[in-house]
What we know:
Elements: H1 2-13, H2 22-42, H3 47-58, H4 61-65, H5 83-98, E1 162-164, E2 182-184, E3 198-199, E4 217-219, E5 237-239, E6 257-258, H6 260-268, E7 277-278
Parallel strand pairs: 1-2, 3-4, 4-5, 5-6, 6-7
Amino acid sequence: xxxxxxxxxxxxxxxxxxxxxxxxxxxxxxxxxxxxxxxxxxxxxxxxxxxxxxxxxxxxxxxxxxxxxxxxxxxxxxxxxxxxxxxxxxxxxxxxxxxxxxxxxxxxxxxxxxxxxxxxxxxxxxxxxxxxxxxxxxxxxxxxxxxxxxxxxxxxxxxxxxxxxxxxxxxxxxxxxxxxxxxxxxxxxxxxxxxxxxxxxxxxxxxxxxxxxxxxxxxxxxxxxxxxxxxxxxxxxxxxxxxxxxxxxxxxxxxxxxxxxxxxxxxxxxxxxxxxxxx
Length: 279
């Protein structure tokens, strides 16, 4: 069944090509879907029923990618260009189609962009592993299909930014303003968010395994379809937080304070809410 789910993801992301973060993102999504399938099977569903329910929970990849275009290369003339030339041409076509800034489809590994005004910039398709964005203004910036492993956004203004289908494993968002930020179908395993402002933040369909939200306040945050295995909300305060189609049986809610609607949703999803305080 894992192979069948892998084929489903390959087909879903096929229109968007081999963007830099695709291997890690699809790997994390496959683990998420496989875990959900196995859980549905354990509830007594047949193979077909569990598979259909699993892929239905994934949602629309168009929404996840948020208008990332599909750059279609023209048929190659003889002699055929090299792989490097083909990739370069494809990236240039994508950049032209999207109006991507000078940062789009580039390699900036371990670059120092701290304390910079980068509001509205487009970093889509870029390799930015280990880059330092600490204290920078990234309001409304776009990081669609970007490779951002080990990247630092400490105390940055990331309001309204978009991280669709990006690899953000081990990234640091400590004390960052994530108001209205969208992390759709992104890999966020082991990312740190201590002290981050979490208001209307969207983590839909993302992998947040082992991420800590301990002692934080979350307002109108969305976790729909996300993977929250070993994710911790100890002593956190949740207001109007959404967990639709989310696996929460292995999520930690010790001492969490939440409203009645959030509590009812989590309880119905099988979360351990014995020590939850309803406000």
